[in-house]
Amino acid sequence: MKILCLSDYVDPLIYNQNIKETFSDIDLIICAGDLPLDYIDFVVTMLNKPTYFIFGNHNLKEFSYYHKSSRDLGAPLDHDINKNNYGHGGTYAGFKVIRDKGLMITDPVTGKKRPLLIAGISGSLQYNKGLNQYTEQQMKFKLLQMGPKLLMNKIKYGTYLDIFLTHASPRHIHDKEDPCHKGFECFNWFIQKYKPPLMIHGHIHLYDAREERVTKSGATVIVNAYAHWVLEY
C-alpha cells in the first residue's frame, strides 16, 4: 500500500494539474493537519482515493462543523450545521478509531485479510488557550477514551491499529522547544502501549533537508508529513 502524507503546507507539487500523473500509484491519502479543507478537496477530487484528515492548530475555520463543543468558543458558522453539507471528500479521523473495510490488508502475523485500522487525534499542545489546543492531561484523557475500541480491534483482528495519525509529534521526537511546537509525552505512552507500526504527524515545519523526518521508536516508525511525503506500508 502506497500512502501520500500531507500536512501544514499547500505544496505546489501537489496543487497542480499534473497530480494524477505524478501520484498515479497512490492507494491512500493521510492529511495530518493545518491544511485548508479546499486543498484536501482538490486532492480527493483529482486522485479519487480514500482520504483521512485531522485538524491542527491553524486552518480551523471549519473545525466547529465537526466539534459541537467548539461552537461556544466563537468558531464561525456560515451555514446550517445540521445539514451536514460541510464535507470535503475526506473522512475526518479526529479522536476516532476507524476500521476501513474498503482498504483490506493482509495481516503480517496472522496472514488473514482484515480492515486497515486507524486512530486519529487532532490538535496541539496548549500554548495560548486557542482552539484545538490541549494540556497533557486533556490529551491523555482523549487517548484513554479510545481504549475500548482499540481493545476490540485486538480481540477481533489480533492487533490494536496500523496507523496513529496526529498533528503534534511525540515529545522529544521531531518536536521543538518553543511552547507552540513541543510534542505530547502521552503520545510516547500511546505508541509504547499499542505499538502501531506507523505514526504520521505534522506541525513541525522542515526548512532544511538534513532535518530528520523519519524516526523509529520501539515498534513504531514515526513520519513527519510536512508538505508531502510518500511511504509504503
Describe the largest sheet.
6 strands, mixed
Shape designation = globular
Give the SSE string: EHEHEEEEEEHHEHEEEE
- Biggest sheet, spatial arrangement of strands: 5-6-9-10-12-11
The helix tally amounts to 5
Describe the structure.
This protein is α/β, with parallel strands linked by helices and 233 residues long. Helix content is 20%, strand content 27%. The protein is built from 5 helices and 13 strands. It has helices at 19-22, 37-47, 136-145, 147-157, 185-194; strands at 2-7, 28-31, 51-53, 91-92, 96-106, 113-121, 124-125, 133-134, 163-166, 198-201, 214-217, 220-224, 227-232. The chain has a 6-stranded mixed sheet with strand order 5-6-9-10-12-11, with helices on one face. Strands 4-3-2-1-13 form a 5-stranded mixed sheet, with no helix packed on it. It has a two-stranded parallel ribbon with strand order 7-8. α3 (136-145) runs parallel beside α5 (185-194). The chain is globular, with a radius of gyration of 17 Å. The N and C termini lie close together (5 Å). The relative contact order is 0.18. The model is unreliable at 73-85 (pLDDT under 50).
Nutshell version of this structure?
This protein is α/β, with parallel strands linked by helices. It contains five helices and 13 strands. The longest helix is centred in the N-terminal third of the chain and has 11 residues, at 37-47.
Chain-wise SSE layout:
Elements: E1 2-7, H1 19-22, E2 28-31, H2 37-47, E3 51-53, E4 91-92, E5 96-106, E6 113-121, E7 124-125, E8 133-134, H3 136-145, H4 147-157, E9 163-166, H5 185-194, E10 198-201, E11 214-217, E12 220-224, E13 227-232
Parallel strand pairs: 1-2, 2-3, 3-4, 6-9, 7-8, 9-10, 10-12
Antiparallel strand pairs: 1-13, 5-6, 11-12
Helix pairs in contact: 3-5
